[in-house]
Amino acid sequence: MGVTTGWLRGLVSAVADLFQTVGGYLLVRSVGAYTAGTATITVEGTHRWPSTGEFVVNGMRGAYTGITNTSFTGVTDEDGNVGLPSDMRSGSVVMYYGMDQSDMDLLRRSFLVDYAEGVDLDVLARNHGLYRPRGMSDAIWSGLLKVLMYLDAQTEYSIEKVMTVLEGAGNFDVYERHDTDPHRVFVVVAAGASAQSEGKAWIVGKEPQAQLTPTTVQVDYVPRVVSGVWSSVDPFRVGTNYAMLPILGCYTAAAQPKLLQSLVPTFLTSDEGKSVYSPGLGELWQVLSYMDPLTVRLGGRRYADGDLNSGTPTRITVSRGFFLPWMVGHRIRVITTTANAGSYVIAAIGSPREASLTGAAFTTEINVEWELEPEFGSVASWPFEIHRATSLAKVITTPVAMPANVLVDYATVPSAQLMLGPNVNGDDQYPFYIWDETATIQAILDMITAAGVEPVVEVI
């Protein structure tokens, strides 16, 4: 339940609010005697007072750096000395000294570049024909306006003044090539790299290296994911990927169409979640579970974008290109539905987004869960590959011998990694944004350079 306020206290509070709004005044009385040089002044209360500011009391001007409910802390005099220079009796009136509390003060400050914020700053800029670049903070835009509003009519000098605000003094270079590019001014800035991986992406690949041993190679950076190791004479990656372990003479039993069985001990518990690829058939499966060194269970990822329609009762449509010709003969299993649940053989691929299924009689339903299931039958021999390259520090070990000189594909951060769909767990993926880090600089330089002069921003 709230606290009841008497009419007199309420009236005084309302008058105080009016004084603060119109004149910016804040008044409070001290409690207890004050001794010169003390860094704390005890008062009746600090309601409405800003967390830091200046004040006047008994003809003395001071400042404070903090407040509690009943005191000002970090008190200094106008020269920066701790405390006020004179004693003060209890009941002395302390008045806030500032020009940022009243409506008139705020209106006046909105016309000054040093104090204007947000839309007020944008209005000031537009009065000079300038528009804030997208995403620029008030602090940077305010500093730029101080330069742009009264800019000197010298191209190179103007660029230096603007770049000092954007990048800081000494963090850029400006040069010209009078012999080859007489109408261009080149501005060089450092790349905005940091240890933070989120929001960034490094597109790497085909790093040339010489082997350490027939099965080890040292790369320039510590890998997080090793995608492939290729021969140096195979830049288009059409030959052997030495990061993969080839297995020949594999078969599946007709009674267990989802199991892949090897003739020799091959599989590891760490293979769960890895992909199995058949170069000859073009089939790509995921190891769903490890059974024993000779056996794993294969399947496809689960999705939740299947649309079924009673008008086409034997077809399933998905929201993106998924279906490929090699999937004919395998199965689609429809999940999380009562009327349409079941496992159906793929009879034909109508398009990358549509498949016809044998035995289906679907009723209309959208966003159903589904997954691709293998239907291997009795395959006497099925060559396949499984990823087995490992890394320790900067050294990558391949499961098979590699050539003397190779090209290595690897990623150093969980960035620029493709996800198969919106239902895939993305906890280990970092999104990145396609953004030109020089776009803001280029936009500002385009505004200030004279007609016929082209500013070129370079990143090193």
Topology:
Layout: H1 7-23, E1 27-29, E2 41-42, E3 53-57, E4 60-64, E5 66-68, E6 71-73, E7 76-77, E8 93-97, H2 103-109, H3 118-127, H4 138-148, H5 155-167, E9 172-177, E10 181-189, E11 207-213, E12 216-218, E13 225-231, E14 244-247, E15 259-261, E16 275-278, E17 283-292, E18 295-299, E19 302-309, E20 312-317, E21 331-335, E22 342-351, E23 354-358, E24 365-373, E25 384-387, E26 390-392, E27 395-397, E28 405-411, H6 439-448, E29 454-459
Largest sheet composition: 6 strands, antiparallel
What is the C-alpha radius of gyration, as a whole number of Å?
36 Å
Mean pLDDT: 83
Helix content: 10-25%
- Looking at the structure, what is the overall shape? elongated
Helical segment count: 6
- Share in β-strands: 25-35%
What's the arrangement of strands in the largest beta sheet? 13-28-11-12-27-26
Low-confidence stretches at least 5 residues in length (pLDDT < 50)? none
Give the terminus-to-terminus CA distance.
64 Å
Number of strands: 29
Q: Which structural class fits the helix and strand makeup?
A: alpha+beta
